[in-house]
């Protein structure tokens, strides 16, 4: 009982502080309760206190509302003068700006106080006024015949009513077992000789606290409280007036488009002059810009402005850069959005954002919309698929309607970028929606050269950027995309800064190219003498095969310095920009790839795992020759490649055909292995020379190879090599 009284006294003291004077008098009176009385009187007093608190709070709210109305009437004529007097130094200190809580705040406070006192009362109802042990109760009261009535509550608490004495009228204690308690009561009464008809009556009662009734309402109360909290936060942010940006506004604007409007004067600094290596694609995009800048030039001839274009190609080829250049050159509003921004967890949000995007674009027409990674929402819809994504399909359907629905005279052009045009829905790709399909492929030698000129211009070089230097770097990086070239130039500058160089030189670019291709040099990875010798003979086998094969790519460098995660050595070649590959060229590439494994077989008693990547390349080439390219006389000109579908339930050939395919793949690889073994057996001395030199120098260049084993017996057919890297013609 005393513990419950302390909790309630503390709660009352806490509540008294923020309440107004109207609440103080009832509180002071309620505190003068006879706390020393029994439990029943205490419960009555607590109920009285709770009722007084609620009545006082209600009276306070009424008084507060009345005062607010009075203040509004009084401040009507003085409002303008008070605002001028306060000026900029006035800072509201409360939610309503005058330092006092609002009506809603008092409502929340009173609700919380009521719940708090209900919980305290329920807890105190279970506490005992004067806790005793059963032995004390038996000795002091039961054996002396002072007990008039016994009440067992919830089979665990006992309240005994005493015969009128100077002691408290009720005593309470806990019991562990009802049966044991009844037995003890009967035993004592038998000992006292009390007749059965005069024995102490024992009643049983089961009670539930207020808290048990409140438990089902807790989720509802939490929801209501959370809603009131959000509304209160919105009111605080808005200062009691209009505004936006709160949580409620974010919920209401979930269907709005997230497209970003670019300001070509401040946001976009890329122009078409900064785009190189894709001249044909740039011309197509520049024509779109011309359409929007001068539409009458085309409309007077009856031409219609194309409604859209798909920019497709491998990663890093400049699709997004082309869109940025379009935004910088167009001179019209440019809206940019990612395809993934249309997809949300809420159903219907994607379609709503598509509608809002095109609605905004029509208001700004002439306008350009750029959707990056459109395959996130434009993927092909599948028939009889076990997968389902109604939200994604609804977004795609809305996009189809918007692109085919707006009038061509609106002068709204849609550009979209993707790495996987084959995954897009056919309805999206048809003329009338995306009229043009612009492919940005990896640049050729001249394209790489033009890209290098752009990225070399901000670097501090020892000499001005020349066609020869840019061409040399372009020749060293076959297959590089625009993003790879930009990364290579940046890596070269970082390497030069790491070595405290005054200029970025050719050696820095060569190191950067090697890092991009095969990874960072790992000189801390120390190999044992046996491993180093194995790697040297392995790389020497590759180098000799490439040196004496007609269709092999020119060798530039061979090294046994570990690089990256797994490469213990590597050989750098210079492949040509060719678009057709013959069967003999495939065979020579397979022989060169097997050179490392065959060299280990010829020079050591055992083989290692160093040829794992080479064997994978050989297997892929052999499978491509047989399954895709029809380079097998037994199988003929038939393609056996399985279709790339999500659910493949059968193979497009029989088991007998599969056995024949397997035999042909083995035949091609075995033939390449035999030819490689014959070549390296014939050139075993050259292999030893190159391997021993690698063990000494660790890195060999083309000039070192010519010095050791003489020039290649074939004329170089690589135009890039002959123009920029041949020792007789190369220059700075």
UniProtKB/TrEMBL annotation:
Region (Disordered) location: 66-97
Required cofactor(s): Zn(2+)
Principal place of residence: mitochondrion
Gene Ontology annotations of biological process type: mitochondrial protein processing; protein catabolic process; protein import into mitochondrial matrix; protein-containing complex assembly; signal peptide processing
Top-level lineage group: Eukaryota
Keyword presence, Disulfide bond: no
Regions crossing the membrane: 210-231
MF annotations from Gene Ontology: ATP binding; ATP hydrolysis activity; ATP-dependent peptidase activity; membrane protein dislocase activity; metalloendopeptidase activity; zinc ion binding
Span of domain AAA+ ATPase: 305-444
Topology term for the membrane: Multi-pass membrane protein
Subcellular localization: Mitochondrion membrane
Keyword terms: ATP-binding, Hydrolase, Membrane, Metal-binding, Metalloprotease, Mitochondrion, Nucleotide-binding, Protease, Transmembrane, Transmembrane helix, Zinc
Compositional bias ranges of the Basic and acidic residues kind: 81-92
Catalytic activity line of the entry: ATP + H2O = ADP + phosphate + H(+)
GO cellular component: m-AAA complex; mitochondrial inner boundary membrane
Quaternary data: Component of the 850 kDa m-AAA protease complex, a heterohexamer composed of YTA12/RCA1 and YTA10/AFG3. Associates with the prohibitin complex, composed of PHB1 and PHB2, inhibiting the activity of the m-AAA protease complex.
Family membership noted in the UniProt record: In the N-terminal section; belongs to the AAA ATPase family. In the C-terminal section; belongs to the peptidase M41 family.
Protein name, entry field: AAA+ ATPase domain-containing protein
Species of origin: Pichia membranifaciens NRRL Y-2026
């Amino acid at each position: 009982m005393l513990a419950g009284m302390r909790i309630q006294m503390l709660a009352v003291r806490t509540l008294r502080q923020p309440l107004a004077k109207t609440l103080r008098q009832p509180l002071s009176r309620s505190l003068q309760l006879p706390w020393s009385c029994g439990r029943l009187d205490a419960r009555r007093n607590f109920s009285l206190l709770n009722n007084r608190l609620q009545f006082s709070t209600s009276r306070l709210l009424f008084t507060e509302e009345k005062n607010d109305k009075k203040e509004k009437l009084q401040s009507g004529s003085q409002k303008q003068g008070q605002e001028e007097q306060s000026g900029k130094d006035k800072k509201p200190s409360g939610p309503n700006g005058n330092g006092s809580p609002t009506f809603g705040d008092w409502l929340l406070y009173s609700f919380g106080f009521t719940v708090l006192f209900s919980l305290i009362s329920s807890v105190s109802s279970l506490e005992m006024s004067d806790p005793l042990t059963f032995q004390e109760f038996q000795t002091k009261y039961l054996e002396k015949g002072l007990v008039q009535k016994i009440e067992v509550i919830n089979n665990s608490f006992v309240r005994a009513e005493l015969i009128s004495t100077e002691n408290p009228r009720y005593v309470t204690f806990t019991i562990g077992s009802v049966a044991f308690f009844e037995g003890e009561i009967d035993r004592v009464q038998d000992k006292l000789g009390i007749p059965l008809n005069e024995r102490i009556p024992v009643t049983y009662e089961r009670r539930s606290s207020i808290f048990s009734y409140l438990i089902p309402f807790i989720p509802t109360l939490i929801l209501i409280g959370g809603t009131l909290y959000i509304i209160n936060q919105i009111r605080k942010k808005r200062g009691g007036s209009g505004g936006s940006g709160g949580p409620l506004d974010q919920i209401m604007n979930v269907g709005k488009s997230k497209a970003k409007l670019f300001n070509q004067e401040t946001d976009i600094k890329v122009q078409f002059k900064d785009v190189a290596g894709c001249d044909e694609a740039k011309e197509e995009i520049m024509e779109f810009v011309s359409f929007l800048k001068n539409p009458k030039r085309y409309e007077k001839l009856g031409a219609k402005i194309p409604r859209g274009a798909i920019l497709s190609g491998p990663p890093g080829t400049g699709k997004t850069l082309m869109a940025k250049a379009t935004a910088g050159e167009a001179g019209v509003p440019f809206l940019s959005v990612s395809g993934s921004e249309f997809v949300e967890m809420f159903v219907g949000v994607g379609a709503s954002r598509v509608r809002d995007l095109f609605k905004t674009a029509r208001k700004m027409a002439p306008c350009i919309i750029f959707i990056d990674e459109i395959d996130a929402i434009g993927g092909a819809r599948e028939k009889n698929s076990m997968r389902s994504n109604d939200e994604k399909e609804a977004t795609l359907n809305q996009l189809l309607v918007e692109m085919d629905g707006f009038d061509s005279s609106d002068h709204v052009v849609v550009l979209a970028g993707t790495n996987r045009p084959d995954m897009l829905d056919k309805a999206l790709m048809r003329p009338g929606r995306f009229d043009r399909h612009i492919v940005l492929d990896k640049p050729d030698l001249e394209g790489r050269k033009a890209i290098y000129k752009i990225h070399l211009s901000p670097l501090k070089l020892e000499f001005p950027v020349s066609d020869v230097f840019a061409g040399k770097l372009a020749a060293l990086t076959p297959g590089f995309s625009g993003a790879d070239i930009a990364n290579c130039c940046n890596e070269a500058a970082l390497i030069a800064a790491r070595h405290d160089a005054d200029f970025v030189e050719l050696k820095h670019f060569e190191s950067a190219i090697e890092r991009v291709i095969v990874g960072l040099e790992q000189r801390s990875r120390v190999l044992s003498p046996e491993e180093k010798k194995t790697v040297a003979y392995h790389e020497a086998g590759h180098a000799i095969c490439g040196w004496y094969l007609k269709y092999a790519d020119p060798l530039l460098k061979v090294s046994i310095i570990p690089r990256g995660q797994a490469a213990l050595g590597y050989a750098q070649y210079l492949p040509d920009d060719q678009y057709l590959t013959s069967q003999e060229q495939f065979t020579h590439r397979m022989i060169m790839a097997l050179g490392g494994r065959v060299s280990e077989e010829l020079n050591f008693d055992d083989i290692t795992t160093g040829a794992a990547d080479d064997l994978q390349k050989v297997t892929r080439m052999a499978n491509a020759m047989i399954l895709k390219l029809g380079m097998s006389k037994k199988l003929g000109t038939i393609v056996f490649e399985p279709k790339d579908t999500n659910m493949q339930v059968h193979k497009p050939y029989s088991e007998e055909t599969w056995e024949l395919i397997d035999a042909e793949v083995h035949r091609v690889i075995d033939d390449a292995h035999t030819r490689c073994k014959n070549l390296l057996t014939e050139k075993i001395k050259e292999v030893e020379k190159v391997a021993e030199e690698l063990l000494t120098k660790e890195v060999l260049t083309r000039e070192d190879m010519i010095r050791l084993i003489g020039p290649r017996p074939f004329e170089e057919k690589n135009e890039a090599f002959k123009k920029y890297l041949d020792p007789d013609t190369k220059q700075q």
